[in-house]
């Protein structure tokens, strides 16, 4: 991993799996990275891998779903759905996971971290 300003390179785009999640360890925190490819349109998302309801680092293994226009990941443990854009749990209003800004620079996947 290389760090530029407060953007950290976590992998290459080829390390991501279409329509699935992978996990990266960043500053001792597990981050779930998701690559959605639909009709040649690619979207990237990065959220905390920690499932606050199941109390385990498992969200990267979750099932990608959608609720209306909201793209979600369903926890593999108890199936709560988390918005990949906001981190909000759709099944428990008081619960959310951290969302990280993510981008691609020269085929490198980078997330924005705290300074």
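^ Assign residues to that structure.
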């Amino acid at each position: 991993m290389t760090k530029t300003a407060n953007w950290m390179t976590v992998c290459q785009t080829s390390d991501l799996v279409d329509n699935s999640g992978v996990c990266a360890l960043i500053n001792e925190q597990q981050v779930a990275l998701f690559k959605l490819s639909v009709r040649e349109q690619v979207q990237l998302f990065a959220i905390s891998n920690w499932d606050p309801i199941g109390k385990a680092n498992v969200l990267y293994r979750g099932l990608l779903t959608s609720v209306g226009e909201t793209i979600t990941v369903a926890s593999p443990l108890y199936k709560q759905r988390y918005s990949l854009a906001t981190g909000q749990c759709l099944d428990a209003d008081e619960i959310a996971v951290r969302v990280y800004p993510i981008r691609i620079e020269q085929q490198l996947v980078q997330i924005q971290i705290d300074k």
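DSSP finds no helices and 13 strands in the chain.
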